Automatic annotation (TrEMBL):
The keyword Transferase belongs to this UniProt entry's keyword annotation: yes
Cross-referenced InterPro entries: Glycosyltransferase_grp1
Signal peptide boundaries: none
Transmembrane domains' residue ranges: none
Keyword Transferase appears in the UniProt entry: yes
GO molecular function: glycosyltransferase activity
Protein name: Glycosyltransferase
Keyword terms: Transferase
SUPFAM superfamilies to which the protein is assigned, alphabetical: UDP-Glycosyltransferase/glycogen phosphorylase (SSF53756)
Protein's organism: Parasedimentitalea huanghaiensis
Amino acid sequence: MKIAYVLNTYPQPSHSFIRREVQALEHQGVEVLRLAMRASDTPLVDPGDLEEAERTSYVLRIGAARLLAGFLAEVARAPRRSWRAVRLALKLARASDRGVLRHLIYLAEAAYVKRRCAAAGVQHMHAHFGTNATAVAMLAQALGGPSYSFTTHGPEEFDTPKAQSLGDKVNSAAFSVAISSFGRSQLSRWAAFSRWDSIKVVHCGIEPAKFSAPTTVPKGPLRLASIGRFVEQKGQMILVEAMAELVQHLPDAHLTLIGDGEMRADLEAAIKSKGLQGNITLTGWLSEADVRAQLSAAQALVLPSFAEGLPMVVMEAMAAARPVITTYIAGSPELVLPGETGWLVPAGDSAALVRAMLQLGTAPHDQLVTMGQVGRDRVLQRHDSEIEAAKLAGHFRQAIG
């Protein structure tokens, strides 16, 4: 079985779950052709990401002239089919805020993807995120390429479902994947009732072997870790506000913010204005091994997101036997059990976040150890990358027939 993964920007530090999925499929004998539109602008630090970049073909690197020539060749070979694909691209453009030109570029990319799939003997295409990569796969199928499927993560797809033509993408795909029951419910809102059975739940996975010997929750002053891109939806700014209140009760509390992004300068300014330079550290992007080391040094992960799908960092923290503080949004309540594996707080509620962190910081050590172990057992049962990849491979086989 040979599958093409059609991706927008790959690999990326915050999308290691795609890499794990691809590699787990390959462990099970699936051959995967990696086709990304572009390389990441973010410097790659993880050896696994660097290796994936070497194995990935980048569509836009062939240049606009060759992409256009390839599409015109498709028109010459199959004019009726090509013009149907043009009409589909225009339909997607009308629903979108990205304009006609952008969707004609997607169409040229799709022609290239279709040719690469034919040359490589690809039997099916799979995209991640229901945004432009899925549009390219959808258009490649319209041009005569193989069937396609896609995985949605959220929140972007669920924030702008009409602009993403999400219902059309679900309806024309062989199947679609949500990473949580919440995600499946959101796809069902826009899909035809007759297509609901084609919407599958396949969780993002972790590699249990990398968490085979978790360290015990450390004792001592409260140490928290938060991992993610520095963007509004991740809630780091409200976390800084909460830390300013928390240190009034626990002066030695420390937070490590792991990641980077457009909000870094704003976060640094907020930390300085509140005098928290000794309580909050920003690390930038780290390798997976260094992230695990930071989790080992912390008593818990805190992720006060405003919008999510089902965060990988929550899974990784639980696999590392650490309690989690996160918000009652999207798929998070399907994984984090209040009082058993961590705390759930309302998104945007700084006072509730402070209370949860204070409860964690004053909880008996044995309680944190127990919560960490319960969380570890839960995530290993639900999010093993090999088990989830096997589910996905089964869906591929059914789609190929």
